[in-house]
Amino acid sequence: MKTRIPYILLVIFIIFVIAGVSLGEITKVLETAVNLCLGCIGIG
Amino acid sequence: MWRRVSQAVSAAVINSHWPSLFARTIYGGKLKGFCVPGLNCYSCPLALFACPVGSIQYILAHIRPSIEAGKYYLGFYVIGTLGIVGSAVGRMACGWICPFGALQDVLYKIPTRKIEIPRAFNYFKYAVLLVMVVILPAMVLDEFGYGEVWFCKYLCPAGTLEAGIPLTVLNSSLRSQVGIQFWLKASILLVFLGLMIPVRRPFCRTTCPLGAIYSLFNRVSILRLSVSSECIKCDRCYKVCPMSIKVYENPNSRDCIRCLDCVKVCPVNAVSYEIAGRRLGSSEPF
Fold first, then answer.
1. Hey, are the CB atoms on B41 and A17 less than 8 Å from each other?
2. How close is the nearest chain A Cα to the Cα of B108, in Å?
């Protein structure tokens, strides 16, 4: 059973990624990352 | 040696958008929709990809307005990406890919008196993850329901080094807005840079929220370390370990970044790596 745990987790997280992609979260990440983060720079 | 090559190639690939440097801004292409497995600020002028810690904070900070608008952005994509990496190799990305981790390895090579920090400090990164990355961005909201990226804004020294300093040097309009928050973050960066010379990976050990996430997978990941009964407890593994772990006491410690230096230096080949429970060897695999 112990050797199966990482594979079970892997499948769960692949489902997470598929769910995230289908909900449009890549666009949300893209929207975040292409805009200058003033907080990251320390002036926002 | 291969780890150094991997760190150098990763840093160069992750930060390879040179045209942005000359345009004095940041890259705005579609690759920014993908998260890198290491801590690398997406506001670095050279950055090609998104930072997972920044992305998850941003999603949590915008969660209420998103749901009100009928968009269920709950962070599945970012959490899933980190979970896939963690389930496969645990904290290995910290040791082989993360540019900020590589910087700490380089600075520790400066010859000076080395010191150890108390092990209890290693737990601070879980508080940073919980409070600054999850709770504050999701719970402290303005009148419109938006939160802030607390870790990026008030703590992250990688953001100051990779984005804050280059952009304020390159861009005069940003430079004119520099205030107390910038100097606070610059001071935090300076403290960490100073600590990186006598202390092994101080940021990874005590503060990094990404390392905190990956660390939860170390005991259950596909790639794991094991120590056989041939171990003579000579402490050579401890002396080379960038995270100050006595590998024979806890081969899959939450702090292990899977650099595999311990596998390489063990004089009796007692430390080995295993994949899915199968011992594959006691020499460096790559």
1. no
2. 25
Indicate the CATH number of B223-281 among 3.30.70.20, 3.30.70.3270, 3.30.460.10, 2.60.40.10: 3.30.70.20
> What residues does each domain of chain B span?
2-214, 223-281
Residue A1 touches chain B, beta carbons under 8 Å: no
Residue numbers in A near B88 (CB within 8 A) = 6, 10
Query: Quick one: DSSP state of residue B122?
Result: G
Structure tokens of A2?
Answer: 């112990």
Question: What is the pLDDT tens value at each position of chain B, 286 positions in all?
Answer: 889 999 999 999 999 988 888 888 888 889 999 999 999 999 999 999 999 999 999 999 999 999 998 888 899 999 999 999 999 999 999 999 999 999 999 999 999 999 999 999 999 999 999 999 999 999 999 999 999 999 999 999 999 999 999 999 988 888 988 889 999 999 999 999 999 999 999 999 999 999 999 999 999 999 999 999 999 999 999 999 999 999 999 999 999 999 999 999 999 999 999 887 788 766 555 5
| A21, A32, A44 member nearest B50 (Cβ) | A32
**Burial letters for B252-269: b for 16+ Cβ neighbours within 10 Å, e otherwise?**
bbbbbbbbbbbbbebeee
- What's the DSSP call for residue B243? T
Q: B59, A10: Cβ pair inside 8 Å?
A: no
**Closest residue on chain B to A24 (Cα):** B73
- From chain A, pick out residues whose CB is under 8 angstroms from the CB of B149: 37, 39-40
Whole-structure pTM value:
0.93
Q: Which DSSP letter does residue B29 get?
A: S
SS3 call for B47: strand
From CA B203, how far away is CA B150, in angstroms rounded?
A: 17
Beta-carbon contacts of B120 under 8 Å, excluding residues fewer than 6 positions away, are none
